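Fold it.
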Amino acid sequence: MEQKLPLPPFTLETALQKVQLAEDAWNSQDPVRVSLGYTVDSEWRNRSTFVNGRAEIVKFLTGKWERELNYKLKKELWAFTDNRIAVRFEYEYQNVDGQWFRAYGNENWDFNEHGLMQRRFASINDVAINETDRRLR
């Protein structure tokens, strides 16, 4: 059976590890690598977009990183329970016209017993920033 360590139930240490692993995967900007942390039938709500399954995750992230250039993300553990983790995050990116943005948000994650995320719900807001105001590099 496919597994993604660490496995639930989470402790503070393993929840922090899971958050760091997710941050590292997303910062790779490799849609396939990111998708492997999710179940094959994973459910997402990302802003107002609904994504289901790894194939749709790869398609969604491929388009995202074609539009969001110079992407850099920071995730922070907010709370956790047995098989759930909540994070706050911010990321910065530049659009194809050269405008920089900082996005803020929260995610709720639900994992199966094999450590794969089966549900991800993300609420995200973007703010235009000047390049000199960037915090993530």
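The first strand starts at residue 38 and ends at 46.
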